[in-house]
From TrEMBL:
Enzyme class: transferase
Keywords: Methyltransferase, S-adenosyl-L-methionine, Transferase
GO biological process: methylation
Taxonomy of the source species: Bacteria, Bacillati, Bacillota, Bacilli, Bacillales
The protein's name in its UniProt record: protein-glutamate O-methyltransferase
Transmembrane segments: none
Gene3D superfamilies: Chemotaxis receptor methyltransferase CheR, N-terminal domain (1.10.155.10), Vaccinia Virus protein VP39 (3.40.50.150)
One Pfam family per UniProt: CheR_N
EC number per UniProt: 2.1.1.80
CheR-type methyltransferase domain span: 1-256
Nucleotide-binding keyword on record: no
């Protein structure tokens, strides 16, 4: 077994995260730079240290998960969601079941609620938001962001749903109340079913082809017929028909 394989086995035992399903060259590069900075010589030494040191484990999780996000990321896509996808979904149902998968620090699920609030009162909006990383979930619940995370937020939305606190912006409680956070690993955990909309953006790029294939099958099962999967702007699905998807718009797939 190579030292990276031993590392993968150890991390899987300790955390349930299977690094073998993440693109290897990219992951190795990120982790090598971390352990070298900390003064370890190889993956085996690094694993031993991680097993003992909770802070180092948190740093490792931070490095492997890449949590960058922003509100209204790729703004044009959110206009399609607002002007085309939500009206379509709301034709058949006024209570939408929505999942923001790999939500990071909360910008994405809060954006979903802000956009949907143009069609429905907030009291009728519920979004499930999940991530593998408990640290980002804590930050999401806090809902405090630097100005640069809001660069794409339309001005009226900024006025309506944020409170400025020094150089930070806080999401108002009325928006926070629409989002429920839960820890969830897309590779291991059960998926609920009957979703109208699943938003999963900017995480599939880190997975191997095999892992992506499994996840798209599971998303397809989790959507109701006619439900929509919204993916990231570099994450077009190659041959969507194999998962029972039709293209609804660029980066939006409809379950048949
Ligand atoms: C780059 S962020 C994307 C955030 C947001 N979806 C967006 O597009 O702005 C990727 C997120 O995927 C999460 N992640 C990585 N592996 C995961 C897994 N196996 N299951 C669930 N979330 C995962 C990371 O913790 C990180 O918060």
């Amino acid at each position: 077994m190579s030292d990276y394989e031993q590392f993968i086995t150890g991390i899987n035992k300790k955390t349930g995260i299977n690094l073998a399903l993440y693109k290897e060259a990219q992951m190795k590069r990120r982790l090598t730079s971390l352990y070298e900075k900390k003064g370890y010589r190889d993956f085996v030494e690094f694993l031993l240290a991680l097993e003992r040191d909770r802070d180092l484990m948190n740093e490792f999780l931070d490095r492997m998960t890449i949590n960058v996000s922003e509100f209204y990321r790729n703004g044009k896509r959110w206009e399609i969601l607002r002007n085309k996808i939500f009206p379509l979904l709301l034709q058949s149902n006024k209570r939408l079941k929505i999942w923001s998968a790999a939500c990071s620090t909360g910008e994405e699920p809060y954006t979903i609620s802000m956009v949907l609030s143009e069609h429905l009162p907030l009291s009728q909006i519920q979004v499930l938001a999940t991530d593998l990383d408990e640290n980002v979930i804590q930050k999401a619940k806090l809902g405090l962001y630097p100005e640069r995370s809001l660069a794409e937020v339309p001005n009226d939305v900024k006025m309506k749903y944020f409170i400025q606190e020094g150089s930070f912006f806080k999401v108002k409680d009325e928006i926070k109340r629409t989002v429920n956070y839960k820890k969830h690993n897309l590779l291991n955990d059960q998926y609920e079913s009957n979703y109208d909309l699943i938003v999963c953006r900017n995480v599939m790029i880190y997975f191997t082809e095999e892992a992506k294939d499994q996840i798209y099958h599971k998303f397809s099962k989790a959507l109701r017929p006619g439900g929509i999967l919204f993916v990231g702007s570099t994450e077009q699905i190659f041959n969507p028909a194999q998962y029972g998807f039709e293209i609804e718009d660029t980066f939006f797939y409809r379950k048949k």
